[in-house]
Write a structure and sequence with these properties.
The complex is a heterodimer of chains A (516) and B (344). Chain A has 516 residues and is an alpha/beta fold. Helix content of chain A is 33%, strand content 26%. Chain A contains 19 helices and 24 strands. In chain A, helix 6 (175-190) links the parallel strand 9 (163-167) and strand 10 (194-198). Chain B contains 13 helices and 4 strands. Chain B has helices at 2-44, 52-77, 85-102, 118-143, 148-166, 177-184, 193-211, 213-223, 225-230, 235-261, 272-282, 294-313, 318-340; strands at 172-173, 186-187, 191-192, 263-264. In chain B, the strands form 2 sheets. In chain B, strands 1-4 form a two-stranded antiparallel ribbon. In chain B, strands 2-3 form a two-stranded antiparallel ribbon. The longest helix of chain B has 43 residues, at 2-44. Chain B starts with a helix and ends with a helix. Residues 1-18 of chain B have low confidence and may be disordered. Classes of the chains: A alpha/beta (516), B mainly alpha (344). Chains A and B meet through helix 11 and strand 20 of A and helix 1, helix 8 and helix 9 of B.
């Protein structure tokens, strides 16, 4: 190919305290190309895009825009250079109109008075160019997610972008909307722009992309031509590494069923009251086993965990603990039934950042160290100290605020809170997200130890290698459905990956489907 | 590997030291400022300001708003706010006075008669009125999920209206000595009883917040409500309770004020919420919740009153005093943020 690339990122590395997020990564986008950027969560896609859009500064490497080396200082600077990123969470002002959003800050004006007619004409010109039917005067608040995306794309065009980055734009769209979006992307392509498309959906990537670049663990794996490759190859590039050494194999001896979920359903999110979040989910969890729950972000895995633990209400479904039907409407009920949950985001959902390590660990089990409501400080310290030691939480002293600990130690702190309650069932949502390799290994070892001690663990993870290595059984969810259950022996990266993306389904979940 | 391992703790220790110097200022800054103010006024008014009587009078001045501020500390620790305290204080004071003076004859304001409920009964009634007001507001906040600012802004108006209705627009005045004892009495002819009650209440509140399960939960709910819920705390009940506590303190404060002034005024406590919130905030409790304590609130209450009294004794007119108090509040929050600034 001897077309001059619009964008070339060459040898990009980026360190964060304690981790190397990117290591010598390359990316090249040609004019009129839709370029897929793939990788598991944590592979470095977002970091790379944040470097391109000026959120982070790179540590090494070069970024060339039309053969000219550039420094992107901040997101605003990126935009003036012609690099626009369209985030999953759209950046629009809901109470303004389409036209106002497209031209925000750059409205055609005379003596500071907006020239409405001109504004609307210019907006219409842009939407026509994209083949979008949107009224310039419509309020963004009343638009669907797909339409809002189109407003963002129109805005990107209006600032004369050369590169448009789309971060999982299809995750919230219906099939028809996706097709429409692809038409628009093809239009952008025809106009000579470069589009970087981030998606987890293999079929979409192969439908729309010209070339695909794969990252894994912050490393560049390769760039392939879509026409000469296939989903299997790309999935292998994304996950294919020997994972067993990293995680270590444990043997487990699953015992009696401690948790049984029957026909759990939930409809409606805060954005969309009609959305089917979970449909008729059934599964069992046994003493001493680790069950991995795999699925893409938005597949309902976290919703399932939250419904079981009583954080979110469910529409229907029964939960049995140790064989008896249990009412769980609040986390309090779940805790009483012997459950614990390490939530997805430790900072917003688990930690009291300003409070001491001691208070963070003991908050759910103060009853054990208090008499008549009065906390016995000595007993509390003793209990917390024991868990700090057991989990090898590194800290200066127990009175240190949780904020001061590193990510890995914070995560262990959250786990210690649940261990102090001696749960029978522990739900762990992304137990190793955002923590370094060492702490990760420690958390994994701890999970194995807990399973040995008889705790039943339901682990949600976006990292396929983690799911494959840690789980005795794997449940796979796709768009609110439980699409498969695999034993450790049956599970290969390709099969789980295919199930997660909805390409394969094995409805063999212990025969509930026939029964219901 | 080993090198990095040994370097890290040293670095952490250095951070720790720098941090604790700031933490010291954060914790004792208000106290240091209070002492500095007392010294400042003592130098300017050496004959009248630093006398025991004057200082105790200032403390007495601080004690009723201080009682309410203790309750407000609980509320603000959960990340809430109560604007209705002044009105609830007036309502409690006037209802207690009315009942004390003659049961159904609510509008009868002549001195001397009593209905037989006694002072203890009057105090109980004032406290119950406060508790009920707090309960109603707390329930509205937790069950109907209306922000505390709005609910208590409504309470600010509604309770005041109710007070005017009960008192028929005027005060209920002139009580017997028993009624006046708690508000006006002094121990050893010097230490005012309200001051002792204030400090006693602060001590109890301190113990509750620092050493009980309930206190820990108050901090947790304010620090991270979502995490508190996921940790199995009954966050609704905890939030409800703090509004009842501030209600109780307002109710008791209502009796104390009537007792001290020998009059339950319908316009008592107008603007009290500002003094009270200022005391709590100057004392270092974060309006976002989860950080602070009663110790700071006591200092904050004293500081506001020392400032007011000192400026008055320097003949600074009250308009200027208001400006100064306003600036002090803003400075206190700025200072608080400065001392809590941590690595991002």
């Amino acid at each position: 190919m001897n077309v001059q690339p619009i964008l070339k990122m060459d040898g990009i590395s980026k360190w964060f305290p304690g981790v190397q997020a990117l290591h010598n990564v390359h990316l090249e986008v040609l004019p009129g190309e839709i370029h897929g950027l793939l990788g598991e969560n944590g592979a470095g896609k977002s970091t790379l895009m944040k470097i391109l859009s000026g959120v982070y500064r790179r540590d090494t490497g070069r970024v060339l825009l039309r053969d000219k080396e550039i420094e992107v200082n901040n997101p605003h600077h990126a935009q003036t250079l012609g690099i626009t990123i369209i985030h999953q969470e759209l950046n629009l002002m809901p109470n303004l109109t389409v036209a106002e959003n497209v031209f925000i800050g750059r409205e055609p004006n005379r003596f500071s008075f907006v020239q409405w007619r001109k504004l609307h004409a210019q907006t219409r010109e842009l939407t026509d160019r994209l083949g979008i039917r949107l009224l310039p005067t419509a309020l963004v608040r009343n638009l669907s997610v797909a339409e809002r995306q189109m407003v963002e794309i129109a805005r990107a065009l209006s600032v004369k972008s050369q590169i448009i980055i789309m971060d999982e734009p299809t995750s919230a769209l219906t099939e028809n909307e996706v097709e429409h979006l692809f038409d628009i992307m093809r239009e952008l392509k025809a106009q000579g722009l470069g589009v970087i498309f981030i998606s987890h959906r293999m079929d979409e990537v192969f439908e729309i992309c010209d070339r695909i670049t794969v990252l894994r663990d912050g490393e560049f794996v390769g760039t392939v031509n879509a026409a000469e490759s296939n989903p299997d190859e790309v999935i292998r590039m994304m996950v294919g590494r020997p994972v067993t050494e990293l995680f270590g194999q444990g043997e487990s001896h699953p015992g009696d069923v401690v948790l049984e979920v029957k026909n759990l359903s939930k409809t409606g999110t805060s954005d969309d009251p009609e959305k089917r979040v979970l449909s008729q989910i059934s599964f069992r969890l046994r003493r001493g086993e680790i069950v991995g729950l795999a699925g893409l972000v938005g597949s309902g895995r976290t919703d399932l965990a939250r419904c079981i633990f009583g954080v979110d209400p469910r529409d229907s479904g029964e939960i049995y603990v140790n064989g008896s039907l249990t009412t769980i409407q609040t986390p309090r009920d779940a805790i009483r039934a012997g459950m614990g949950m390490v939530p997805e985001d430790r900072k917003t959902q688990a930690l009291f950042l300003a409070m001491s390590v001691q208070a963070n660990t003991s908050i759910a089990s103060l009853g054990d160290v208090a008499q008549f409501g009065l906390i016995n400080g000595g007993r509390e310290r003793q209990m917390v100290g024991g868990y700090v030691e057991k989990l090898n939480i590194r800290l200066a002293n127990l009175d240190q605020p949780a904020l001061d600990l590193s990510g890995g130690n914070q995560q262990k702190l959250v786990i210690s809170r649940w261990l102090a309650l001696k749960p029978q069932i522990l739900i762990m949502d992304e137990p190793t997200r955002g923590i370094d390799v060492g702490a990760k290994a420690e958390v994994h070892a701890l999970m194995r130890q807990l399973a040995q001690e008889g705790v039943a663990i339901l682990m949600i993870s976006s990292e396929l290698p983690e799911v494959l290595a840690m789980s005795d059984r794997i449940l796979v969810m796709h768009e609110g459905d439980m699409v498969g259950e695999l034993t450790r022996e049956e599970a290969t990266p390709e099969r789980v990956g295919a199930m997660m993306t909805g390409e394969e389904s094995s409805l063999s979940v212990e025969g509930y489907e026939e029964a219901s | 590997m080993t090198g990095a391992g040994s370097a890290a703790p040293a670095e952490t220790a250095a951070k720790q030291n720098r941090f604790s110097a700031r933490a010291f200022m954060g914790r004792f800054g208000a106290f240091i400022f209070l002492v500095a103010l007392v010294v400042f006024f003592s130098i300017l008014k050496p004959n009248s300001f630093p006398t025991p009587l004057n200082l105790f009078n200032i403390a007495r001045q601080a004690s009723i708003s201080g009682l309410v501020a203790i309750g407000m500390t609980f509320v603000i620790l959960t990340g809430g706010i109560d604007l209705s305290v002044g009105s609830l204080l007036a309502l409690s004071g006037i209802v207690a006075a009315a009942v004390y003076k003659g049961g159904t004859g609510l509008l009868d304001t002549t001195a001397g008669e009593t209905s037989g409920v006694g002072v203890g009964g009057a105090i109980l009634i004032a406290c119950l009125v406060g508790l009920a007001g707090g309960f109603a507001q707390g329930l509205t906040i937790t069950k109907l999920k209306i922000p505390p600012f709005i609910v208590t802004l409504g309470g600010l108006s509604a309770f005041r209206g109710l007070t005017l209705l009960v008192g028929n627009g005027g005060p209920i005045s002139a009580f017997d000595d028993n009624y006046k004892f708690l508000g006006q009495g002094r121990i050893g002819e010097l230490v005012p009883i309200p001051v002792i009650i204030f400090l006693g209440a602060a001590l109890i509140a301190h113990v509750i917040l620092r050493y009980t399960q309930y206190g820990r939960y108050v901090y947790a709910v304010g620090g991270n409500p979502e995490a508190a819920r996921l940790s199995g705390l009954n966050t609704g009940l905890i939030i409800l309770s703090v509004y009842m506590i501030v209600g109780l303190m307002s109710g008791f404060g209502g009796y104390m004020l009537a007792s001290r002034l020998n009059s339950a005024e319908a316009i008592a406590g107008v603007g009290l919420e500002l003094t009270v919130i200022a005391s709590v905030v100057i004392g270092g409790t974060s309006l976002f919740g989860g950080e602070g304590g009663v110790f700071g609130t006591v200092i904050g209450s004293l500081l506001v009153n020392v400032l007011t009294a000192g400026l008055t004794q320097l003949n600074v007119i009250s308009y200027v005093q208001q400006i100064i108090i306003g600036l002090v509040i803003i400075f206190a929050v700025f200072f608080d943020r400065f001392t809590k600034a941590r690595r991002s």
